Amino acid sequence: MDKQYLCFHLNGEYFVHSVSSIREVMPYLEPTPVPGSPDIVEGVLNIRGNVVSIISAQKLFNLNKSQTSVDSCIIIFDSQSDLYGLSVDAVDEIVTFNQSKMHVSEAENDLSKSPFIRGTVKHSKGLLIIVDFMNLLVIEQNTLRGG
Length: 147
Prior knowledge:
10 strands; Chemotaxis protein CheW
């Protein structure tokens, strides 16, 4: 069965996530830093009355920090009753592919060792790295709680 994924860029790589838990995509706004928060948390934003933690995708994947540009975005996604944001270099488009085409990589590189990577899929754009935000939220919530 084909599923839809949001395609976004980080340091020249293409990443995708299922659209099912994504609430919206917004232009990048500078978050308010929170003293004592984990390194991956850039800060928080007030989005229509909701305080949203903004997570740095570059730090999450141990990538070099890229400069914020007019293309930079924040992807807002739901986790039960909480909202979270992920800052990315740019959002591209919605792509569709069948999960049976997903390949789980055994390569020995930093990205393949990440608990947030589900696999890769070949696409006309090139190799797409499939991200699982729900794993991200569980780990981020445990980090914030000191676990």
